[in-house]
Every structure is written in structure tokens, then in C-alpha cells.
């Protein structure tokens, strides 16, 4: 593997699990860094563990990110994965909210890739993986899949992190200028939150429209307009999770919606409840 300096810094928002305070009452969540040599492709690792009383369950909801996830899942098996054939699962970019019901006892190690990182590292077709879990991931060598499958709750978090580093570092990857270009564009989207339209991104990054669309299709499997829209919702949810108590009209305008009704409709379609209801629910949790 060719070690490269991460050209962009963070390529993900801080938003993720909806109603995080509620999740913390049911599930232990730990985030872990990957090895420095993997940072051009991997954002971070995360680990979940739960042990719920018999007859009870909890539904966790997570915002979609423009990134692939490779997970090792032991114990309770989520819907859609049980029939896939193994504990190592790659899930492409999800275009809708990710809901999963947890019950009994379970453990998951997740590898969150940077936008396009999984495609750059493995050559996988991002478009064919969109909204689809696959196990075992055919784009990864069998030896790597087998090494990841050995991970589980019997190991410490540090041991899992080191083993995951070792498994991924066995993959061969060379410098990918197109992927680096994509990461630079994603970083620009995150660094300058006034970029709310694709034409603004094209001008800011000095990239033709067709090339921009092609890069996102190849590496992410979703168009740049979708990514911009998701980041705006992430910002709003983070504000509400942090206790925002201003008007929804001001919140909508701050993040580029010129019509509060449009903002509320888009928020409700993704989150499942209107922003007013979500904010009220968060305040009651505190």
C-alpha cells in the first residue's frame, strides 16, 4: 500500500445517529481512529455493543452519509443481512434514513470510509452498491474478509482496531488522482457551507459540470446535488441535537432554504417527523 498524506482533513459531518441521548441508554458506542496509513481512505472505526432484556428491542435511526461502510456483525442479526452468508458486510451509500431494530445481544465493528474511499481502495462499483448490503464483499480478497470475520466482542476495542488496520493494510492501492480530486471537492462542500447549489460547487472548484457528475457517480454512486442536500440536513439536525431554541424560519434560512415549508417537507421526508417535533423530542430527553 502506498502511504499518502490525507489531502483534505475531515470529509464527514459530525451528524449521525438521530436522538443520540436516547441511543446511549440502550447501546454502548465507541469511535476509534484508524492507522495513519489508512486515513486517505478511511474516516474512522466505530463499535456498538448492546445487551437488551428479553422481549425488548430498540430502533436506531441514522442519517445517510455519502460513504460506504464495511461492518463485522456478531450476535443479533439485522433484517436484510441474515441471508447474506457471513458476518462481514459492505453497505453502499444509503439514500434514505437507516433504521435498524436491535434486540437480544449484539456487537458490530464498523469501518466508515471517506466518500469514494471504498471504491478507490477496492475498485468496487459504487452505483451497484447503492442502498445495498453485500456479504461477503466480493471486491475484497478472501484473506481480508476472513481476518475481519475473526473480530468480535471477545476482543478489546484496541485489539479490534489493530486487527482491522492490519487487514485493510494488506490491500493493494496506488495513488488515485481522481479520488484525491473528489475528496478536495467534498472538503470544499464541508468547509464552505454557503455552497448550496451544484453550480456554486462547479465555480468554486473550477470543474466542468459533466466531470463533477462523473466523479460522484463513479466513486460515491450518488449525485453532488444529493450530497449537498444531505449535508444541509446534517447541519440542521446537529443544531437541534445541540438544543437550538430559535425559530425554524431562521434555522431554515441559515442553511439555505428560502421557503420554510420546503425545509419542513424535506426534513420530514428524511427524518420521519417535522423539525418542530424532532426539536421538542430532543428537549424532553435532556
TrEMBL record:
Which Pfam families does its entry note?
DUF6597 (PF20240), HTH_18 (PF12833)
Q: Quick check: keyword Transcription regulation in the entry?
A: yes
Gene3D superfamilies linked to this entry: Homeodomain-like
| Domain HTH araC/xylS-type span(s) in chain numbering | 180-281
User: What keywords tag this UniProt record?
Assistant: DNA-binding, Transcription, Transcription regulation
Query: Mind telling me what this protein is named?
Result: Helix-turn-helix transcriptional regulator
Amino acid at each position: 500500500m502506498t502511504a499518502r498524506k490525507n489531502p483534505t482533513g475531515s470529509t464527514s459531518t459530525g451528524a449521525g445517529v438521530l436522538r443520540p441521548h436516547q441511543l446511549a441508554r440502550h447501546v454502548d458506542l465507541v469511535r476509534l481512529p484508524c492507522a495513519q496509513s489508512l486515513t486517505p481512505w478511511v474516516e474512522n472505526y466505530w463499535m456498538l455493543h448492546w445487551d437488551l432484556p428479553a422481549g425488548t428491542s430498540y430502533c436506531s435511526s441514522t442519517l445517510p452519509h455519502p460513504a460506504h461502510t464495511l461492518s463485522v456483525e456478531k450476535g443479533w442479526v439485522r433484517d436484510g443481512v441474515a441471508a447474506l452468508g457471513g458476518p462481514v458486510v459492505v453497505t453502499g451509500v444509503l439514500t434514505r434514513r437507516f433504521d435498524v431494530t436491535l434486540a437480544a445481544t449484539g456487537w458490530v465493528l464498523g469501518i466508515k470510509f471517506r466518500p469514494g474511499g471504498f471504491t478507490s481502495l477496492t475498485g468496487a462499483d459504487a452505483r451497484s452498491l447503492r442502498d445495498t448490503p453485500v456479504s461477503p464483499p466480493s471486491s475484497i480478497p478472501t484473506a481480508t474478509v476472513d481476518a475481519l470475520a475473526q473480530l468480535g466482542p471477545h476482543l478489546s476495542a484496541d485489539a479490534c482496531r489493530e486487527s482491522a488496520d492490519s487487514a485493510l493494510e494488506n490491500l493493494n492501492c496506488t495513488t488515485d488522482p481522481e479520488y484525491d480530486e473528489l475528496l478536495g471537492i467534498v472538503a470544499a462542500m464541508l468547509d464552505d457551507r454557503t455552497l448550496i447549489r451544484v453550480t456554486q460547487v462547479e465555480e468554486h472548484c473550477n470543474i466542468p459540470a459533466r466531470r463533477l457528475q462523473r466523479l460522484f457517480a463513479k466513486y460515491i454512486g450518488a449525485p453532488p446535488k444529493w450530497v449537498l442536500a444531505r449535508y444541509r440536513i446534517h447541519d440542521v439536525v446537529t443544531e437541534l441535537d445541540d438544543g437550538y431554541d430559535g425559530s425554524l424560519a431562521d434555522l431554515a434560512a441559515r442553511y439555505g432554504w428560502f421557503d420554510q415549508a420546503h425545509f419542513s417537507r424535506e426534513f420530514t421526508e428524511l427524518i420521519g417527523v417535522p423539525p418542530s417535533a424532532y426539536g421538542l423530542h430532543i428537549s424532553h430527553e435532556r
